[in-house]
Amino acid sequence: MDTTVGGNKRVRRAYGFDEVALVPGPLVIDPRDVDISWTLGGIRFDIPLLAAALDGAVNPKLAAQMSKLGGLAVLNLDGIQTRYEDAEAILQAIADAPADGVIQFIQDLYAKEAIKPELIARRVRQIKELGGIAAVSAAPHTAKAAGMAAVEAGADLFFIQSTVGSVRFESTRIAAFDVAGFVKESPIPVIVGNTVGYAATKELMEAGAAGVLVGVGPGHICTSRKVLGIGVPQITATADCAAARDDYHAATGRYVPIITDGGIRNGGDIAKAIAAGADAVMLGSTIAAAAEAPAPGYSWGMATSSADLPRGTRIKVGTSGTLQEILFGPAHKDDGTMNLMGALRLSMGSLGAHNLKEMQQAEMMVAPSLPNEGKALQRAQGVG
Amino acid sequence: MDTTVGGNKRVRRAYGFDEVALVPGPLVIDPRDVDISWTLGGIRFDIPLLAAALDGAVNPKLAAQMSKLGGLAVLNLDGIQTRYEDAEAILQAIADAPADGVIQFIQDLYAKEAIKPELIARRVRQIKELGGIAAVSAAPHTAKAAGMAAVEAGADLFFIQSTVGSVRFESTRIAAFDVAGFVKESPIPVIVGNTVGYAATKELMEAGAAGVLVGVGPGHICTSRKVLGIGVPQITATADCAAARDDYHAATGRYVPIITDGGIRNGGDIAKAIAAGADAVMLGSTIAAAAEAPAPGYSWGMATSSADLPRGTRIKVGTSGTLQEILFGPAHKDDGTMNLMGALRLSMGSLGAHNLKEMQQAEMMVAPSLPNEGKALQRAQGVG
Amino acid sequence: MDTTVGGNKRVRRAYGFDEVALVPGPLVIDPRDVDISWTLGGIRFDIPLLAAALDGAVNPKLAAQMSKLGGLAVLNLDGIQTRYEDAEAILQAIADAPADGVIQFIQDLYAKEAIKPELIARRVRQIKELGGIAAVSAAPHTAKAAGMAAVEAGADLFFIQSTVGSVRFESTRIAAFDVAGFVKESPIPVIVGNTVGYAATKELMEAGAAGVLVGVGPGHICTSRKVLGIGVPQITATADCAAARDDYHAATGRYVPIITDGGIRNGGDIAKAIAAGADAVMLGSTIAAAAEAPAPGYSWGMATSSADLPRGTRIKVGTSGTLQEILFGPAHKDDGTMNLMGALRLSMGSLGAHNLKEMQQAEMMVAPSLPNEGKALQRAQGVG
Amino acid sequence: MDTTVGGNKRVRRAYGFDEVALVPGPLVIDPRDVDISWTLGGIRFDIPLLAAALDGAVNPKLAAQMSKLGGLAVLNLDGIQTRYEDAEAILQAIADAPADGVIQFIQDLYAKEAIKPELIARRVRQIKELGGIAAVSAAPHTAKAAGMAAVEAGADLFFIQSTVGSVRFESTRIAAFDVAGFVKESPIPVIVGNTVGYAATKELMEAGAAGVLVGVGPGHICTSRKVLGIGVPQITATADCAAARDDYHAATGRYVPIITDGGIRNGGDIAKAIAAGADAVMLGSTIAAAAEAPAPGYSWGMATSSADLPRGTRIKVGTSGTLQEILFGPAHKDDGTMNLMGALRLSMGSLGAHNLKEMQQAEMMVAPSLPNEGKALQRAQGVG
């Protein structure tokens, strides 16, 4: 199972979505009977799908709509929404900017205006007023101030997110962010990420996290692997963290769900993530392609705005349909980006899984999607 | 042989057509002496090739022609032929429809008209009148009614096909389809599919199936893997099911052939499928490219017409030659899509296999077709 | 080392040129001191390179030129040269034919005229008169008649070649070709191919072959893998046959060289073939790209002319330089297709191999050439 | 861990940059606290980055600038700078030459003028006068004469570089270059390369090398793998040589740093090289893309000028920014080619590595970057 790449350098083989496939067994269940609900921070959700805290994916209106449909959207507290009063105009400007120089354009917009506590409060209240569950996300260094403002305004769930989230942080210059302390003091549940690996996940759970976001560097709008060399394919990352969750649960009786975040493109990836052990999945670009998305047709990552080392750019995601159609269909495309929950139900039914816990036990095979097979298809379609 | 993708998630490596190659040994046999006949449901066929129950591949005329040439074509009872009196006009309309919006066009056509028992009967009688063997296919939920009409009209073989076929089906809303009961009551042999896996195959054989269709999600006109995450590469699927067939045969004395269905593009794939353990193969797009095919130059899958979750689209397959040329040549192309049976004979002869049972024992290697090698060839041909 | 693809189907992993690389060690030798000579059928050659018996690669003039340069060219006795008096005009016509329909054009030309013993004799005499070593090749079913004519005209070496060459051949319709008998009666050394695998190679050596051609289906102008499913990557094929050669040598004291034939594109492939165990290599398309080649700029395989099942087409190979430049440089391209022997010498020197026998022991690694790396390069060159 | 490719040919699997990824653990460090300094030949450098001795990458001015920024640039003593007084004009001519025939154009320019000791001295003095550390590189056969001239002019470090560098060299025609003798007599530290493999590295260290360059054939402007079949992917090469360094250090107490040279394209590759065991990395094309580079926008390898067997061509590298921006940012691109040292610091911090020695122990996984994933991204960006 493990080998060396040379000398004494030991490695494991890691797997991504495109390298595995799910395998039906002898039992098939009516998709309508499949239970895809789950619980995060004491709140029960009808569907195991979160919209990622990207400026191009989530604004207060979309967050409320997502709640209505049974899922959860997370609002980014470090982005445009909390820096600019008229966020929609800025988002439109980013969508309209020419591709050439767009990274610097984004860098400048994020640098020019500071995060404003009153805007944090306003965005949270907007979500609540529209009837949504208010989940918000901040980086560790802004979490304290942002958290206070958000909680006071009525936020329900707090996400702390950084490129690599961890309990232990060393610095000679700034005070280390104390995850356990923050969680203890927070009146609302705190979900922490992003992480990979058994040990880091377990430490976050021991620090009191109500949920853990899994995924470092695998997303489509993220170039961490090219820039930093860091990036664990999501099937392996999810399976490793699921093992930590199960062991922590067995030892303490507390069940902390893990959410696979990054790189998910279609219904097949969602089914695979859960079969690898995830309790839910987080989507970015796919949600940014909803008709209701804040930056029509475009998305960019949290690290795109980094002043000195951007890891991602603005990508065109197009518009595939309404949020309702993306989640529940009907689909008029066959690429797996529409009716995601219908696809998950049919996948689980076909695999004989009554609920998400059983889906986590579904049979999986290593089955690379061959370049040639894709090409054969393209040729047949007159595309390639 | 098996490993984990991370944590405790155990997996096996699965293989597709493009990842294996056949290996000649010290014996070569005259291709003309090779026996490629086989038996399904008590009927002996000269060639181990079935035309898939796709609306773009099989109509009564093609079915009769296929019988004449020694093979078997299966007519889809859930499609255009049994919904529309003038099926040919509808099929032509699908072929003529613009690519943009074609999925919805197909969805609408399949939704607008119900399946009519009198059309089922008429199609079966048309095949018989033209001298063909009448093999028909229905989904489990239409199988009872369709089966009665087809049998009365003189059908010879009945196929029950769904995305994932199985003996055990659970639903709180509809009565489960009783495979064993259906088979027992059916006056004609029943072939069931599609399936993968040792256990599911054995259960279908124990339920009385006269044949088992192998293949979930690997076809060219099928996007199950993207939409559902489900899809087992055909070499592995075939070898697993062949093991179940052999064990079932050893235990009961009854030999139930397995038919590899999906993803086969050329003579090489046919040879590989049989070497992996198949008794016969089922082809879709390749047959849809026959001059006699019902929807000139186009094909689409059974799941393309799904109202809320289409898994496939219409693809252009072109027209490669007459059915006679596709099956027996002469070929004037070198891509393996013509003279399929000549290719199978030459392959078996080159591998020293006197018949299909010996071909199932042919030596196979894992030998990926490298993207670079393909490109080198394309460059040389001035294509890429 | 071996595994199963599923069920009970056991397989080995096979490797092609693009999947391996050679590894330098602590000793470097002056390339000019490297000995690359070898012996076939009692004749010593300065360079381990043969031109393949393709109509687009070898005519009498090129054969003589190849001898002069220290190598060996094999003339096809089943092709245009022995069917047409004015072969050059026919070859030019094939080169000039439009791509569309070229396979049928070739099929017709090979079918229209029979092989003529007097032309066989004339071609052999032409080679001898030009001072060359006359090596000729025929298929088993034409070998007897062709052999007689060629030997009488003064041929030096006789090659028997078929898609899969073997000692044991079964037919109820034609008499089996008796390899051992033919070899025994032949007054000149007989080289047999093509083969792969330890057992088949050993049987050919035991039947008296003076050399064995290794390679079934890996060539660039050959589509056996697509048509028949047959094809063993050349590194594995060569290493397997080399083991048979070494065991046969140890047991009998007779050393029968093996020649890797098919799929070799550049100096790197030549070095790898020898490091895998080959005594020499056979090139087709690369030689067809010589300024002296018979069909300016084009090549096609022996199986392209098959009347009912062509496995290959005419490909454009261009013209890269004179035979002298291709073999010994100077090269003004960096793609490894020029100065092949200079490259082999430098490769052997860099690997510390004094001669071909030592080169067969060079360290090899499995090191796939990644598609992404190629693309990075193309991008940098402004190509992709 | 090792297997055979067939017969008795044993091989190891080797890995390149694109096949591995780094894995964060539970500790994160402030990037500003990370120590990335190292020592070569007794000189301490702030950053572990060398500019390769390519004519398109390094001239005296760039070398001085590189020193100022904390790194080291190596000047090629066998190239244009020491053959032509007005080197800049020649370099500009190479940059301006049409792509067609550029290899021969380069071959001619390098052949026409000999290396001149007075130009060697002048280039060294230019670097020193500009305040730089003068590191120079020569091939073994020119090392003696060049070394003398360079040392007299005040050179600080001497590099001996050939395609495959080794202690043992055999020739019947020229005197073998005595590495140990040269090192002993040299008044300045001598770094030797390029090499791969445990044994060769250890011998170079035992011969007194002050540093070893790792990498044979993996670079972007190098086609050694195609021409010679030689080429070891850099992750494996680095890990093997690092093991030799560590064992040599344990046995002798002398620490000889290894420098990974070739194939590095971005910050991610730098991080991976060090995690594989490198003490520093050498970059070519990336430095040639600096605004200060000698041949604006172009680069070519040392082996491009080979008179009879060029292994590389001129490639367009473009201009990405100033050397300062390439090394320290700010980056306005997300492809990992800008702010390389910022990226390394962030990568190390994210992996919990305080310094380069700890980074060498970072967790690595085998995690291929799948072609499909890349394509998905390109599609999204409207590129592919």
Query: How is the biggest beta sheet of chain A arranged?
Result: 8 strands, parallel, barrel
Largest interface: A-B, 72 and 68 residues
User: Termini distance of chain A?
Assistant: 38 Å
Tell me the overall shape of chain A.
globular
Helical run tally of chain A:
15
Spatially, the strands of the biggest sheet of chain A line up as 7-8-9-10-12-13-14-15
- The CATH architecture term of chain A is Alpha-Beta Barrel
- Overall pLDDT of chain A: 92
The number of domains of chain A is 1
Reading off the top of the CATH hierarchy, the class of chain A is best stated as Alpha Beta
Strand content of chain A: 15-25%
In terms of quaternary structure, what is this? homotetramer
Please identify which CATH superfamily of chain A we are dealing with.
Answer: Aldolase class I
Q: Classify the helix fraction of chain A into a percent range.
A: 25-40%
Number of DSSP-assigned strands of chain A: 18
Please describe what this structure looks like.
The structure is a homotetramer of 384-residue chains. Chain A is α/β, with parallel strands linked by helices. The first copy, chain A, has one domain: Aldolase class I (TIM Barrel, Alpha-Beta Barrel), CATH 3.20.20.70. The first copy, chain A, is built from 15 helices and 18 strands. In chain A, the strands form five sheets. In chain A, strands 7-8-9-10-12-13-14-15 form an eight-stranded parallel barrel, surrounded by five helices. The first copy, chain A, has a two-stranded antiparallel ribbon with strand order 1-2. A two-stranded antiparallel ribbon of chain A has the order 3-18. In chain A, helix 1 (60-68) runs parallel beside helix 4 (117-129), helix 4 (117-129) packs across helix 5 (140-152) and helix 10 crosses helix 13 (340-350). The first copy, chain A, starts with a strand and ends with a helix. Mean pLDDT of chain A is 92; it is low at 371-384. At the A-B interface, strand 3, strand 4, helix 9, helix 10 and helix 13 of A face strand 2, helix 3, strand 11, helix 7 and helix 8 of B. Strand 18 (364-366) of chain A pairs parallel with strand 2 (10-13) of chain B, so a sheet runs across the interface.
